[in-house]
Design a protein that fits this description.
Structural class: alpha/beta
Helix content: 40-55%
CATH superfamily: Homocysteine-binding-like domain
CATH topology: TIM Barrel
Number of helices: 7
Largest sheet: 5 strands, parallel
Number of domains: 1
Radius of gyration: 16 Å
CATH architecture: Alpha-Beta Barrel
């Protein structure tokens, strides 16, 4: 009702590892992530029935550093291999896609290598799912890990699914 055209799922920090820390099984964790999509889709659909206005649902995928909960999501001072990033993000992505999101929001990412891993995975597993990417910044021209923002945005834009990239 305030005018937003995209609802974002409450899954930015949701991961199997985070839910496991709190005693949930993989099945329970996956169900919660999928439910974050279902809640947003229902809100979108209810609003459309009421107003006739169709909005969109973006599945929120925050950085690995958000799981660490030590501030590293703002600095990008962590490093995983390409495969480790994929293993971390894939379950959340799968549940959001199964939950019916219209696109993914790869949000406030501090590291280009993490974004590449996610986008490579999506290109292989969900090539038709649109994506937007946002980077966190160290300063107005540099993403958190120290690369120029223009370079990071240009690299993200090379993936055909990416319809927007910025900070």
């Amino acid at each position: 009702e305030a005018g937003a055209r995209i609802a974002i799922t409450d899954s930015y920090q949701a991961s199997l590892q985070a839910f496991s820390r709190h005693g949930l099984s993989e099945e329970q964790a996956r169900a919660l992530i999928r439910k974050s999509a279902a809640v947003a889709v229902k809100a979108r659909d209810d609003f459309e029935k009421k107003t006739g206005v169709h909005n969109y649902v973006a599945g929120s995928v925050g950085p690995y550093g958000a799981y660490l909960a030590d501030g590293s999501e703002y600095r990008g001072d962590y490093g995983l291999s390409h495969e480790e990033y994929v293993a971390f993000h894939a379950p959340r992505i799968e549940e959001l896609a199964a939950g019916g999101v219209d696109c993914l929001a790869i949000e406030t990412q501090p590291k280009l290598s993490e974004v590449r891993a996610i986008l490579d995975y999506l290109q292989e597993k969900h090539p038709a799912l649109p994506v937007y990417v946002s980077f966190s910044l160290r300063d107005p021209a540099t993403i958190s890990e120290g690369l120029p923002l223009a370079e990071a945005v240009q690299e993200a834009g090379r993936y055909p699914q990416v319809f927007a990239a910025g900070a």
